[in-house]
Amino acid sequence: MGKVSWPSNAKLDEMKKLVAEIAGRCTEDVRVVVSPYRICPLGAHVDHQGGTVSAMTINKGILLGFVPSGDSQVILHSGQFEGEVRFSVDKILRPIHIVKASDNINESGASKLQQECTWGNYAQGALYALQSRGNVLTQGIIGFVSGSEDLDSSGLSSSAAVGVAYLLAFESANNLDVSPAENIEYDRLIENEYLGLKNGILDQSAILLSSYGCLTCMNCKTKEHKLVRLPEFQNLETEKPKAYRILLAFSGLKQALTSNPGYNRRVAECQEAARLLLHATGNEAIEPLLSNVEPAAYETHKSKLEPTLARRAEHYFSENVRVAKGLDAWASGQLEDFGKLISASGLSSIQNYECGCEPLIQLYEILVRAPGVYGARFSGAGFRGCCIGFVDADSANEAASFVRNEYQKLQPKLASQINSKNAVLICDPGDCAHVI
Asked: Cellular component terms, GO, for this chain's entry (predicted)?
């Protein structure tokens, strides 16, 4: 499959030249943060209940070229957004969601704040997060940030990638030695405290902990993680594992559809299911999370749940089983079995967790029957963005063409809104976020 293919040397040189021109510095002075997007093959919608998830990064994401400014000033430009962002690292920041107390989270998980916030808020959020834990910053940055083309609002966690990028840039400029675990917490502060968004830690954990070619497994209750590699050889006859690639198939939906019950409601339903199950076992004093319910207790008492809560609990417990089986399949190089589990996860997300919308469900169904595809599911909740698929490397081009053509037949209007060259992207695994 080769080594990490992103960013290319040409792309790095382009970024360095651009920042050098903006800052009036030499290209040798320019540093570049590489902050990849992530996918989660297994572990859908269980992180908020303390479940176990799997993730890996891909060779697409955020590049932030920068130089230390030489003073406290931060000056930023963007490849996607207009205008210039300026602020000082000695400015004491207050959380936006407190300043704008009228902003409310709606049922879809979207907020007025998300829609209105300027693109510089993540940079200021990174400063806020570092300040709030006692870090003193004296050095600003002059930088240019750019994301992979047409991949915003795609369900690949571009917001976490941006937050991590700014954290790493500020830390590099100020010679701060910060661990991945600390940066996971700092990015949580950006999202939860500064912006007031109800996000977990899955996205930034994947971006900061992943390693090229590995599947990152994380227990969201204990925060423990491990990296699981594909076997180098399949058996004693030195048969190599099958090569795979990753398909990103885009729906054309940029805004979440809200005709189904919202994301926050589902979280509440999982908690209510946990509360009832814990009460049935005499453990009502324990925090109502499904991870606090023993699987045996679930099997014994699940008949006491009304149908909606029963479906949510069934998704949680069956998904945790799929994650465990998927890690074993990955570790043994059984990509066909791994893929079947991914597709089963996608089906449970539709039937039991009841997320997704018609275009994304159609896209999922197309991917599942595309030639050479091992398995597929939504990337995210399926209200907008894309579906991911693992595909045999030799069949990737054929599968991409099949998905593109079939989706065009079912959703011609949405398909027409997608840049044709990016309608289905063929990607490879990435590495963790780092500074070059």
From this structure: cytosol
What are the contacts of 201-206 at 24+ separation with CB within 8 A? 201/47, 202/40, 202/43, 202/47, 202/53, 202/55, 203/38, 203/157, 203/159, 203/160, 203/161, 204/160, 204/163, 204/164, 205/55, 206/38, 206/40, 206/55, 206/56, 206/57, 206/157
Indicate whether this model's pTM tops 0.90. no
Q: Which of 430, 435, 393 is nearest to 6 (CA)?
A: 430
Question: Which sequence spans correspond to the domains of the chain?
Answer: 9-96+119-219, 233-260+306-429
Q: Cβ neighbours of residue 409 under 8 Å, at least 6 residues apart? A: none
pLDDT tens-place string over residues 373-411:
999 999 877 778 899 999 999 999 999 999 999 999 999
Q: What's the CA gap between 312 and 46, in Å, rounded?
A: 10
Given the residues 103, 203, 392, 431, select the one marked as catalytic: 203
In this prediction, residue 231 has a pLDDT band, given cuts at 50, 70 and 90, of confident
Structure tokens at 67: 């130089």
Q: Is 203 a residue of the active site?
A: yes
CA–CA separation, 105 and 125 (whole Å):
19
Asked whether the predicted pLDDT for residue 192 surpasses 90, the reply is no
- Note the pLDDT tens digit of each residue in 30-75: 999 999 999 999 999 998 899 999 999 999 999 999 999 999 999 9
Looking at the domain covering 233-260+306-429, what would its CATH class be?
Answer: alpha beta
Q: 60: helix, coil or strand?
A: strand
Is residue 164 within 8 Å of residue 145, measured between CB atoms? no
